[in-house]
Specification:
Elements (H helix, E strand, L loop, with lengths): L1 E9 L3 H19 L2 E6 L4 H7 L5 H9 L2 E6 L14 H12 L3 E7 L12 H4 L3 E7 L7 E9 L2 E7 L4 H16 L4 E6 L5 H15 L5 E6 H10 L6 E4 L1 H15 L8 E3 L5 E3 L18 H13 L4 H16 L13 H9 L3
Parallel strand pairs: 1-2, 1-3, 3-12, 5-10, 8-9, 8-10
Antiparallel strand pairs: 4-5, 4-11, 6-7, 11-12
Bound molecules: 3-isopropylmalic acid and magnesium ion.
3-isopropylmalic acid binds next to helix 4.
Length: 352
């Protein structure tokens, strides 16, 4: 197969972990006879520094013209001025919107050899294998009005949580399709006791649920969901929720895996290239030191092979190599070990 991938390493540890994901992709390409062409572009703070914009039109066009996009991370303290007219995060949001990737899949598994890396009790973690489907191009992140100004002599700010029915339906349908290939359970998370947008969300989830009688649907309020993620995470299979709720719950869920550095994500739309990124962010405190955990980026590359290219065997090969490296004791600093970023990749590639 010929694959054309846009690389957007971004800021902080982004370039370090993307370089490792590329090493793994190249190893897979050699072994399974694929040809991969990479186009590398800037996004986030480095793009602001170079072009004065966190995402240029050309970069978005290049992403749209490729088969899939692999992104590292954006952001850092040097671009954190709250009054700046552009911010690294804006580039990421514009990219998600521009690619139309409305569903963000964030799988979270507890790896038995890493149970000690999590602050939770081992018995809570046994059997944890869930996936959060976060709505990614609507809700509180994008709703209008979204502004700040003087109003009645006071400083005033507003963000809007809005959804059209079709935006809710398509992401919930995707969650049900995923559940069909898993443990057949969907947990729809909302705040329907308070928010009108959540009442629409719940109504549509219920409708979609009726069309899938083989799948169990439960509705859980977001505050209760936050508690259940810690109190009984093994009972969750597919969790589907609004953009901002999903942002918050997935950081919480990452604690189950032992380290945020392990977690990948895939963002998918109806058509066009998917966007793949580790969920850990730019980690400015350790950037440039060569100690970041590359697994989140490597597993994101595996998700890319699965969802954008239907290369299931290749994706599984990467996931198993990661499992084996961890089972052998390979640990970066976030997991209490001493391996450097490149050494962790060496340990993984050795199992491919
Ligand atoms: C994430 C991040 C982003 C988000 C930031 C960097 C804009 O926290 O991918 O979860 O809020 O979506
Ligand atoms: Mg987040």
């Amino acid at each position: 197969m010929n694959l054309h991938i846009t690389l957007l390493p971004g800021d902080g540890i982004g370039p370090e972990v993307i370089a490792e994901a590329v090493r793994v992709l190249d190893a897979i390409a050699a072994r399974y006879n694929h040809t991969i062409r990479y186009t590398e572009r800037l996004i986030g703070g480095c793009s602001i520094d170079r072009f004065g914009q966190s995402l240029t039109e050309e970069t978005l066009a290049d992403c749209l013209a490729s088969d899939a996009v692999l992104l590292g991370a954006v952001g850092g303290p040097q671009w954190d001025d709250l009054n700046a007219k552009d911010r690294p995060e804006r580039g990421l949001l514009a990219l998600r919107k521009g690619l139309g990737v409305f569903a963000n899949l964030r799988p979270v598994k507890a790896h038995p050899p890493l149970i000690d890396a999590s602050p939770l009790k081992p018995e809570k973690l046994a059997g944890v294998d869930l996936i959060v489907v976060r709505e990614l191009t609507g809700g509180l992140y994008f709703g209008q009005p979204k502004e700040r100004r003087l109003r009645n002599g006071y400083e005033w700010a507003v963000d809007t949580l809005e959804y059209y029915d079709y935006e809710i339906r398509r992401v919930i349908e995707l969650a049900f399709r995923l559940a069909a290939g898993r443990r057949k359970k969907v947990t729809s998370v909302d705040k329907a006791n308070v928010l009108e947008s959540s009442r629409l969300w719940r109504q549509i989830a219920t409708q979609v649920g009726r069309e899938h009688s083989e799948i169990t649907l439960e509705h859980v309020l977001v505050d209760t969901a936050a508690m259940r993620l810690i109190a009984s995470p093994a009972a969750l299979d597919v969790v589907v929720t609004e953009n901002m709720f999903g942002d918050i719950l997935t950081d919480e869920a990452s604690v189950l895996a032992g380290s945020m550095g392990l977690l990948p994500s895939a963002s998918l739309g109806e058509q066009g290239p998917g966007l793949y990124e580790p969920i850990h962010g730019s980690a400015p405190d350790i950037a440039g030191r060569g100690i970041a955990n590359p697994i989140g980026a490597i597993l994101s590359a595996a998700m890319m092979l699965r969802y954008s290219f239907q290369l299931e065997a290749e994706a599984t090969a990467i996931e198993q190599a990661v499992e084996r490296a961890i089972a052998d004791g390979a640990r970066t600093a976030d997991l209490g070990g001493t391996l450097r970023t490149t050494q962790m990749t060496d340990a993984i590639v050795a199992h491919l």
